[in-house]
Amino acid sequence: MACESRDEAAAAGKNTNPQAFEENALSEVRHVIGVVSGKGGVGKSFVSVALAAGLQKAGATVGILDADITGPSIPYLLGLRGQRLMSLGDLYLPSIAPCGIKVMSSNLLLGREDDPVLWRGPVLAGALRQFWSQTSWGPLDYLIIDMPPGTGDVALTCYQSLPMDGVVIVSSPQDIVSMIVTKAVKMAARMDIGVLGIVENLSYLVSPTDGAEIDLFGPSHLKRDAELCGVDALDRLPIEPALAEACDQGRLADALPDDYLPGTVARALMLEAVPAPVPDLAAMDARLDAYRDSLGLVDGVPEGMEERDATPDEEPF
Ligand SMILES: Nc1ncnc2c1ncn2[C@@H]1O[C@H](COP(=O)(O)OP(=O)(O)OP(=O)(O)O)[C@@H](O)[C@H]1O
């Protein structure tokens, strides 16, 4: 990306926003993929690690930029607890996990891992800039961005300032998550960033007695949500207690089976030839309206009242 012109980057479907952070001379990152969830706790960091490990097993060199700056968990999942970042001149050197994945995380900057990060928006954006512009990533085939949950300030900065090829949306089967998934897809579309597809995590539990799938959080919404949003359904991941234990032991990457997250890894490998499409917002709204109508969820305004839109001080973006 360092030597790419803005036109070349645009042709490759990458972020060419004028607010883009500069890349330094010692980083040569070929593809940047964001992993996002509309809501916390659906396993976004878990999926970030699984995607990074899957790409690594396919022969790619991989790093993870932990943009969940106030709730960082990548060092924890990859056995880097208690490590501190090193620097060389002006540039940070990412930590290298035992599995070989390079990691940049606010947790590696803290004196104690249980210290809270009490930074306001501009400082958070500054940290993100350091993680990209002031970090010597070296040659990387893929940099995975573990984005903060939701549609807040840091998520916006990621979209506007990092040269993302596209995002993977992580959901779970709870009903409320479907609405939040559509928000996450719409956010990417409004920022003109492509969507590789949706991964449904915590999708089911395999019964230890008869191998049946138990829908612990209700039935899967993956296919329906992907169709409504007009994006690909990539993978469904079960809840696996052995993997939860591996997370706590900092050895998630090593504990994952070889063919884990196959749809997502394959789609990421295809980026070379097939850019992630930016969802069509108007078509998506039409499908969502038709779906709501089919359920009888018609909006009504009680007599004497009127609807009012939010009136923030500034344009959101
Ligand atoms: N498929 C899974 N099987 C077993 N355990 C899982 C699975 N997915 C997630 N977990 C467990 O849930 C924990 C939290 O996951 P993770 O940190 O990825 O959530 P998150 O969505 O990134 O959270 P937040 O958005 O709040 O940062 C993991 O440490 C792991 O123990």
Automatic annotation (TrEMBL):
Lineage of the organism: Bacteria, Bacillati, Actinomycetota, Coriobacteriia, Coriobacteriales
Entry annotated with the keyword Nucleotide-binding: yes
The organism's place on the tree of life at top rank: Bacteria
Protein's organism: Kribbibacterium absianum
Family: Belongs to the Mrp/NBP35 ATP-binding proteins family.
Self-association and partners: Homodimer.
Record's function text: Binds and transfers iron-sulfur (Fe-S) clusters to target apoproteins. Can hydrolyze ATP.
Coiled coil ranges: none
UniProt-listed PROSITE patterns: MRP (PS01215)
Binding sites annotated in the UniProt record for ATP: 38-45
Classification via InterPro entries: Mrp-like_CS, Mrp/NBP35_ATP-bd, NUBPL-like, P-loop_NTPase, YlxH/NBP35
Keywords: ATP-binding, Hydrolase, Iron, Iron-sulfur, Metal-binding, Nucleotide-binding
Protein name: Iron-sulfur cluster carrier protein
